[in-house]
Design brief:
Helix content of chain A: 40-55%
Strand order of the largest sheet of chain A: 3-2-4-5-7-6-12
Shape of chain B: globular
Largest sheet of chain B: 6 strands, mixed
Distance between the termini of chain A: 53 Å
Oligomer: heterodimer
Number of strands of chain B: 13
Strand order of the largest sheet of chain B: 3-10-11-7-6-5
Radius of gyration of chain B: 22 Å
Radius of gyration of chain A: 21 Å
Strand content of chain B: 5-15%
Helix content of chain B: 25-40%
Largest sheet of chain A: 7 strands, mixed
Chain lengths: 362, 394
């Protein structure tokens, strides 16, 4: 009898333990669970419905319903004139898409992963990014390049690179890195509506993750501003700035740090270019300590840019050296243990934050 | 000299031969006579996977005189650019088109401004053909505000969107997929127009060209790929670069036509044929057999990989302007003096435009930061010393 009561109490208490992550967010009203995949798909549906100039182009986006099912149902709804399956020729189809954008259409180009975008990188940089400048504003390029970026699981060196730093270095491009479903919807819709070339870096491992999304986010007019970061978790002892999947890891790290009395502020960058330097600097001026987190290679990375700008703008406010957590400086290995070592883990973020707070010997 | 048939009446030709009434009137309107004349192209067309069009081309006195004037203007413009470059008023790259004028001029005669043209970096004359002014050319070359890209593009980045000229591209071969994209957009928008994507014999071996051609053929895009074969990709002769320099055949399943690119009428006929084909059947390749008198660019004397005899030989036998001059004279459409007067007028126009361009100021320093984006969103940008120079992008 007592055993059953204890069990029932345990059940009741276990029901109260929600995934820690969602408690840290505040949404306006009762939230519906939506995966990132659904978020992207719904955003594409809405933007294609709203503007007949928007079309999709890429490998397997049509009949296959998308290699990662992001474009599911779009061929059926909008037809083969607006959802175009291409041969495996990135340079060719990306150039074609950019040319269509010159004429005034609004292509959404899918790269099956951004590793393959390197085959088309000349068109992204030289044909798309620079045209508005070279033509003194006459030829604008309203195009979106989207697809999964960064590491997946066990896909090896040629399929795991993060391109955020490379593309964000280039003036003329906008580079977005959604984390959750709200980001996915709001930023993709903003990207499609934006008149400039936007590189939209998704993450394969986030596609299946569910996040609560409010009615506001689900509305077809929902849009997020490009160039603004979001404070995912307010804190006062250390600023942790991250993008994409590392935002989730940073939030988990913040939970752990809280137990040790360190109150971390987690910034979801959302936009790598334009980079929201003012939100980052405002945060560091409050906390006086900075940890940047990225999955990408460390040299000349996003973290390096953030650290430089904080040292330049807020030097007097820093109470500790800036800390960078990044992917290992090696091509991505296949073996599971090595792969784990090649990518930041939550423990790495915790350790770096403690170092910034002088809580552990470096 | 090709056979030709003069259908205009003798009285009209007598009018055309009337000398200028007074020395004071230096400007003489180009003949508006549109009586049809049929002229045969210098050589027949060679075709691949299609039926070649007839070598009898319909034209008229007005058109022939327009060809003469436009090509003379382009020729003068390029030669003037050569001098400006040597005087260091033009910097960086300058790729001149003299010798190839018939391609630009013949193409325009066959199409409208609703059709799109995109080309590589040898774009000055193509821009003028699309309606660009001499002032816009020279000012852009000298990096001044009155330039077509406000001085921010330079020689390789001329654009004229209102007449569907999409540049002006520095990366060899990139313009071909871009051009196929323009054709895609025209078809998507149901505009009933076509795109001419021009490239050189050097670019003809680019992989992305075949990628774009494959997609254009699969999707029946109204794309016309025009290989301006001047036989040298920079310093490399075509036989050293291409296993098969029969560029009109390189499309394999895509039809092609080989055209004498020094004959403006042949170019016109071919482009007309190609436009009709592309609207109905998808992509087609035109190979224009042409020649550039200058080297690849102003840094290249152009004589280390070809003989001076070859260059002067082409000038002697195949010059596009001389061909039209001979046609005009043999058909009594104008006198030698009238043609020379046109050349003098054109020279004056060029000189005036250069003088005007020299007056145009360099861009304002604030222009460094303009047009980075169509919508800057208030993002920051920085100069070399970011503590010294920052901007907010509008």
């Amino acid at each position: 009898m007592l055993g059953i009561v204890r069990q029932k109490m345990l059940e009741r208490s276990s029901k109260k333990i929600r995934p820690a992550v969602s408690m840290l967010r505040s949404y306006s009203s009762a939230a519906k669970q939506m995966t990132v995949r659904e978020a992207l798909n719904s955003a594409l549906h809405e933007e294609m419905s709203a503007d007949s100039k928007v079309f999709l182009i890429g490998e397997e986006v049509g009949e296959y319903q998308g290699a990662y099912k992001i474009t599911k149902g779009l061929l059926d709804k909008y037809g083969p004139d607006r959802v175009l399956d291409t041969p495996i020729t990135e340079a060719g189809f990306t150039g074609i898409a950019v040319g269509a954008a010159y004429y005034g259409l609004k292509p959404v180009v899918e790269f099956m992963t951004f590793n393959f975008s390197m085959q088309a990188i000349d068109h992204i940089i030289n044909s798309a990014a620079k045209s508005n400048y070279m033509s003194a504003g006459k030829i604008s390029v309203p195009i979106v390049f989207r697809g999964p970026n960064g590491a997946a699981a066990g896909v090896g060196a040629q399929h795991s690179q993060c391109y955020a730093a490379w593309y964000a270095a280039c003036p003329g491009l906008k580079v977005l890195t959604p984390y959750n479903s709200e980001d996915a919807r709001g930023l993709l819709k903003a990207a499609i509506r934006d008149p400039d070339p936007v590189v939209f870096l998704e993450n394969e491992l986030l596609y299946g993750e569910s996040f609560p999304t409010s009615d506001e986010v689900l509305d077809s007019s929902f849009c997020l501003p490009i160039g603004k970061a979001k404070i995912e978790r307010k804190g006062k002892h250390v600023t942790i700035a991250a993008y994409s999947k590392m935002v989730g890891y940073s939030l988990q790290a913040a939970e752990i740090l809280e137990k040790d009395g360190i109150d971390a502020e987690v910034i979801n960058l959302r936009s790598i270019r334009p980079l929201d330097r003012s939100t980052i600097n405002d945060s560091v001026r409050k906390t006086n300590r900075l940890v940047t987190v990225e999955e990408a290679f460390p040299q000349h990375g996003v973290g390096a840019e953030i650290c430089a700008c904080v040292v330049e703008e807020s030097f007097a406010y820093l109470d500790a050296p800036v800390e960078r957590i990044a992917g290992a400086d090696v091509p991505m290995p296949y073996a599971a243990n090595l792969e784990r070592m090649a990518l930041p883990q939550v423990g790495d973020i915790v350790r770096a934050a403690k170092r910034a707070c002088y809580r552990s010997v470096p | 000299m090709a056979l030709s048939y003069l259908r205009s009446s003798s009285s009209r030709s007598a009018n055309l031969l009337r000398p200028l009434s007074s020395a004071a009137s230096l400007r003489r309107p180009i003949s508006t006579d549109t009586t049809p004349i049929t002229i045969e192209t210098s050589v027949p067309f060679t075709s691949h996977q299609c039926e070649a069009p007839s070598r009898s081309v319909e034209t008229n006195p007005s058109e022939l005189l327009t060809f003469f004037r436009d090509m003379a203007l382009m020729r003068r413009m390029e030669i003037a650019a050569d001098s400006l470059y040597k005087a260091k008023l033009i910097r960086g790259f300058c790729h001149l088109y003299d010798g190839q004028e018939a391609v630009a001029v013949g193409m325009e005669a066959a199409i409208t401004k609703k059709d799109c043209i995109i080309t590589a970096y040898r774009d000055h004359c193509t821009f003028v053909g699309r309606g660009g002014t001499l002032l816009e050319v020279f000012a852009e070359l000298m990096g001044r505000q009155a330039g077509c890209s406000k001085g921010k593009g330079g020689s390789m980045h001329f654009y004229k969107k209102d007449s569907n000229f999409y540049g002006g591209h520095g990366i060899v071969g990139a313009q071909v997929p871009l051009g196929c994209g323009l054709a895609f957009a025209q078809k998507y928008s149901k505009d009933e127009s076509v795109t001419f994507a021009l490239y050189g014999d050097g670019a003809a071996n680019q992989g992305q060209l075949f990628e774009a051609l494959n997609i254009s053929a699969l999707w029946d895009l109204p794309a016309i790929l025009v290989c301006e074969n001047n036989h040298y990709g920079m310093g490399t002769a075509e036989w050293r670069a291409a296993k098969s320099p029969a560029y009109y055949k390189r499309g394999d399943y895509v039809p092609g036509l080989k055209v004498d690119g020094m004959d403006a009428l042949a170019v016109k006929q071919a482009c007309k044929f190609a436009k009709e084909h592309a609207l109905k059947n998808g992509p087609i390749i035109l190979e224009m057999d042409t020649y550039r008198y200058h080297g690849h660019s102003m840094s290249d004397p152009g004589s280390t990989y070809r003989t001076r005899d070859e260059i002067s030989g082409v000038r002697q036998e195949r010059d596009p302007i001389e061909r039209v001059r001979k046609l005009v004279l043999s058909h009594d459409l104008a006198t030698e003096k009238e043609l020379k007067d046109i050349e003098k007028e054109v020279r004056k126009e060029v000189d005036n435009a250069i003088a005007q361009a020299k007056e145009s100021p360099m861009p304002e320093p604030s222009e460094l930061f303009s047009n980075v984006y169509a919508k800057g969103l208030g993002a920051e940008s920085f100069g070399a010393d970011r503590k010294e120079v920052r901007a907010t992008l509008a």
